[in-house]
Design brief:
Distance between the termini: 30 Å
Largest sheet: 8 strands, parallel, barrel
Number of helices: 12
Strand content: 5-15%
Structural class: alpha/beta
Number of strands: 10
Order of helices and strands: EEEHEHEHEHEHEHEHHEHHHH
CATH class: Alpha Beta
CATH topology: TIM Barrel
Radius of gyration: 20 Å
CATH architecture: Alpha-Beta Barrel
Shape: globular
Number of domains: 1
Length: about 350
């Protein structure tokens, strides 16, 4: 297992992270999985044996039940694992202040997560989404207060836009508050939208990049093939969590899957391992969050940490999945390639190949 620095922080995280959206199985998360405590303990042990040192959850997963299951499974394992969770969405019966990134909600949500997780601190607390109704200064100061109180070690964000992220870092610097050390994003061979702004912004701002759903809700596992019926048990029904990840270009997706399967056959590994290994080569990426409904899936995904693709294989997948350059990037690619920063090259570097 490789360990990567989480942005400019002093924290080192494994290149693979255990995701716990499958833990619990309550409400709308039932289609994702229903991992119980015993199964969660087994997953944690498999990850620890593989060298994983980070586990990621959120208070919104299964209405807090994911954190509860994880909290029980952490007993006897806490000292070997970093715990990341998120806050932003309502949990429980709710009320007018049971959502958002206000000081009230963030502190209450953090304290509730501590109780459910049965821990005395959270290693990485991430804001789960943007809140345009709360002054950003209030959010930044509340997060800084949680760090100074010892309840949280580091703070990060998830699912922000590029300007949200840049403004958040600017406010933290102006207030002398602890900045985000990570930006958790959706990024995969099926959807590389993050390369336009979020990856360059993270590199420039010194943030690590944990990636959620690196297999695009299972679409890059090789189970979804062109002109073939969907396999049994897939979670792409309308209204499901997977339905939140729309397929932008189905033909391109199947071209990518065909390549993943072919490359996997060369290495005698699954298509999923190839997709994960490719993503680990991308600029700025710190860790891939992998979750599994079965032990077999988890073991297979963990093996991706030891898979090395050839330059030709990486380039083939890059070409097949490359998104078009939007303005102003096509203009920059045509006119300023002589003076590009490391952050610029995260997107425009492919135009120089």
């Amino acid at each position: 297992m490789e360990y990567r620095q989480l942005g400019r922080s002093g924290l080192r995280v494994s290149s693979l992270t255990l995701g716990t959206m499958t833990f619990g199985g309550r409400g709308r998360f039932a289609d994702v999985g229903s991992t119980d405590v015993g199964q969660a303990e087994r997953q944690l042990d498999l990850c620890l044996d593989a060298g994983v040192n980070l586990v990621d959850t959120a208070d919104a997963y299964s209405d807090g039940l994911s954190e509860e299951v994880l909290g029980e499974a952490l007993v006897g394992r806490r000292d070997r694992l970093l715990v990341a969770t998120k806050a932003r969405f309502p949990t429980g019966a709710g009320g007018p202040n049971d959502a958002g990134l206000s000081r009230h909600h963030l502190i209450a949500a953090c304290e509730a997560s501590l109780r459910r997780l049965r821990v005395d601190h959270i290693d990485l607390l991430q804001v789960h989404e943007w809140d345009g109704a709360t002054p950003l200064e209030e959010t930044v100061e509340a997060l800084d207060t949680l760090i100074r109180s010892g309840k949280v070690r580091y703070v990060g964000c998830s699912n922000l836009s590029g300007w949200h992220l840049a403004r958040s870092l600017g406010v933290a610097e102006r207030l002398g508050a602890q900045p985000y050390v990570s930006s958790q994003i959706y990024y995969s061979l099926e959807c590389r939208d993050a390369e336009y702004e979020l990856i360059p912004a993270a590199i420039d701002g010194g943030l690590g990049v944990p990636v959620w759903s690196p297999l695009a809700a299972g679409r890059l596992t090789g189970k979804y093939r062109r002109d073939q019926p969907l396999p049994e048990g897939v979670r792409n029904a309308p209204g499901s969590n997977a339905d939140l990840l729309p397929i932008r270009d189905e033909a391109r997706l199947y071209d990518v899957v065909d390549a993943l399967v072919e490359i996997g056959e060369v290495h005698a590994v699954s298509a999923a391992q190839v997709a994960l290994a490719w993503l680990l080569t991308r600029p700025g990426v710190s860790s891939l969050i992998i979750g599994a409904r079965t032990e077999e899936q988890l073991v297979d995904n963990l093996a991706a940490a030891s898979l090395t693709l050839t330059t030709e294989e990486v380039d083939r997948l890059q070409r097949l999945s490359a998104p078009p350059l939007l303005y102003p990037y096509w203009h920059q690619a045509a006119s300023i390639t002589d003076r590009l920063s490391t952050a610029d090259l995260a997107l425009l570097g492919r135009t120089l190949d």
